Amino acid sequence: MNIHFRETGLVLEGGGMRGVFTCGVLDFMMDKKITFPYVIGVSAGACNGLSYMSGQRGRARYSNIDLLEKYHYIGLKHLWFQHSILDQKLLYELFPKEILPYDYDAYFSNPDRFEMVTTDCITGHACYLEEKKDPKRLTDIAKASSSLPYLCPIVNIDGRPMLDGGIVDSIPVKRAISQGYAKNIVVLTRHKGYRNREKDIKVPRFIYRYYPRLRAVLSNRCRIYNEQLDMIEQMEAEGTVLAIRPMQPVTVNRIERDTKKLTQLYNEGYACAEKVLSPFL
User: Fold this and answer.
1) In this structure, is the dihedral angle defined by the CA atoms of residues 62, 68, 187 and 37, taken in order, positive or negative?
2) CB count in 10 Å sphere of residue 29
3) DSSP one-letter string for 161-194
């Protein structure tokens, strides 16, 4: 039996390797054949969402845990050859083409919409991008959406320099509402009540010197994210958002390499999705 939330959107936060929580949530949804007419993902949420949209159960978990354990694709060593803390050649070329091929045909034939969020380095604004024909452009959008500032190179999409969508829109509920979805299920990678306690620091001019508007939004990133968390909790109280989030503070960091901790967080994601969604099944 397929369960289609016809008038509800699905919003997937990023969070780097904390996204394994989202992998667990999405695998539960695939096990129960739960789909949505509109899905939007940011950064890790965009990459994990791709496997959900192609119906490849377990693929996102494999890439975040098994592939990491085997190939150690996170580390400073990759900065020397690829100017990235991630082995981007492995993640965006070898993995989708050879190691565990991405089912582009299934994705392109999926009638439901999938948007990925990037940040335009010139304007400092969020871009909401879709692709249902060109495999290379689809992969490039996912790559741009998850290209962490300072740690990954800028990616050009349609001639525009792009970086991680989480810089300006980590939890794109407003975008989902603008697309006609007044009610949304939101998958978060932090526990309820979490706020970023770091202080925003003005980015020096010598960093991203050709992109002053990018520097401006990077200088306000913590404030913007905390405001979005405030908004989500208000929407929860109003009944327009159903959040699936970790129950306890997450010890996994953005570039976590401990696969035991990652596996535990994946399992928590699956269990939390089951607890939250079971009343609707």
Assistant:
1) negative
2) 23
3) EEEEGGGT-SS-HHHHHHTT-SEEEEE-SS-TT-
Closest CA to 228 of 44, 11, 7: 11
Q: Is the pTM of this model over 0.85?
A: yes
Question: Beta-strand (E) ranges in the chain?
Answer: 3-4, 8-12, 34-35, 38-42, 113-120, 126-129, 155-157, 160-164, 183-187, 241-244
Helix (H, G, I), strand (E, B) or coil at 20: helix
C-alpha distances (whole Å) from 152 to each of 46, 77, 81, 118, 267 are 16, 13, 12, 14, 29
Each residue of 22-73: pLDDT tens digit?
Answer: 999 999 999 999 999 999 999 999 999 999 999 999 999 999 999 888 888 8
Residues 17 and 264 sit within 8 Å (Cβ to Cβ): no
Give kind and range of the element (H or E) at residue 39.
Answer: strand 38-42
Cβ(170)–Cβ(104) below 8 Å: no
